[in-house]
Design goal:
By secondary structure, the protein is α/β, with parallel strands linked by helices. The chain has ten helices and twelve strands. The chain has a single domain, classed as Rossmann fold (3-Layer(aba) Sandwich). Strands 1, 2, 3, 4, 5, 6, 7, 8, 9, 10, 11 and 12 form a twelve-stranded mixed sheet that branches.
């Protein structure tokens, strides 16, 4: 089944070239079905790249999703095509009275900015608080995960001595969790960040569960006990060339970046990377969408946001298959 997106979104052509089934609004209007409502708050500067990466992962599922793209109103990036934002993005004021089955809050290149100094911090906090009653399950990604852990639990990040960049192995700590259905015991994932939160900080929160950990990259996946919020510090959605583009960009700026770890064959930036995280990435996004959204979200959209434990939800009362 397809994801449903706005007609003529640039990601549509890219995904269709990859034989990914994408349904436009026009075609979806003729189907009698209650699709999942998924909101993506895209905080990344290069919005089109992030859109395509996330839509690619969400699309490989038997579930039909209405995907809506959200931007901040308090800060509008000047390096993004304004026509693209006007055509494909909405703002919080337009959706604040709606309910969503799932939401993704992306990262942003803001590691060295204090949270309270972020131009849209107040708006982001408002959206994160709003999500607790208007979104069934919220997925916080990279800087979005650090911002969410800080806002909801008061956990502040720490800094690495140098940027963490590369492909790292991770141990699944909760192998029986639906989040890791089909996963190997060890999976690989890209990281690209300057900050981290300690395992001790996560363990100190009774309502948080550490789900995956890397000896080299540290805390990678965390969720709340009720599974309403999931925090992920890696980038399983990354394309094969994403870290390469970042490396060469920083090299061009004279930043003298380290070569991403376990990425280029023989650590030679002239050689094409070999992807070893794609299958884990697809499994992760599919499992999130299936088990943490579809299987437990109320069929009646007005009930989304109720205080239920996703892992203990009564499938007779909850779940899109009713």
């Amino acid at each position: 089944m397809p994801i449903r997106i706005k007609d003529s979104l640039p990601a549509q052509a890219i995904l269709e070239e990859e034989n990914i089934f994408v349904m436009t609004e026009f075609r979806a209007m003729h189907q009698d079905i209650r699709p999942l409502e998924v909101l993506i708050l895209n905080l990344m500067p290069n919005k089109e790249v992030t859109e395509t990466q996330l839509l690619r992962k969400l699309s490989n599922s038997p579930l039909q999703c209405n995907v809506e793209l959200l931007q901040t109103a308090s800060y509008v990036p000047t390096h993004v095509d304004s026509n693209h934002l006007e055509s494909f993005y909405t703002t919080f004021d337009r959706i604040k009275d709606r309910k969503f089955d799932g939401m993704i809050i992306t990262g942003a290149p803001l590691a060295y900015v204090e949270y309270e100094d972020v131009a849209y911090w107040d708006e982001l906090c408002m959206i994160m608080d709003w999500a607790k009653k208007h979104v069934h399950c919220t997925f916080y990604l990279c800087w979005g995960a650090f911002a969410g852990l800080y806002h909801h639990f008061g956990i502040h990040h720490e800094f690495y001595d140098k940027k963490l960049s590369g492909i790292y192995p991770h141990r699944v700590l909760k192998p029986k969790s639906p989040l890791f259905r089909g996963f190997d015991d060890v999976f690989y994932a890209p990281h690209s960040r300057e900050i981290y939160v300690s395992k001790e900080a996560i363990d100190g929160q009774k309502t948080l569960e550490l789900m995956a950990y890397s000896d080299e990259a540290g805390v990678t996946m965390v969720k709340t006990e009720d599974s309403r919020m999931i925090f992920v510090t890696c980038h399983l959605e990354y394309d094969s060339n994403t870290l390469s583009d970042e490396y060469h960009r920083d090299l061009g700026k004279g930043l003298n970046p380290d070569i991403p770890v376990n990425y280029f064959p023989d650590d030679d930036p002239e050689k094409a990377p070999v992807v070893n995280w794609r299958s884990a990435g697809q499994l992760f996004y599919t499992n999130w969408l299936n088990y943490y959204v579809y299987q437990s979200t109320p069929y009646d959209v007005t009930r989304i946001g109720e205080d239920i434990d996703i892992d203990k939800a009564d499938n007779v009362e909850y779940g899109m298959y009713i």
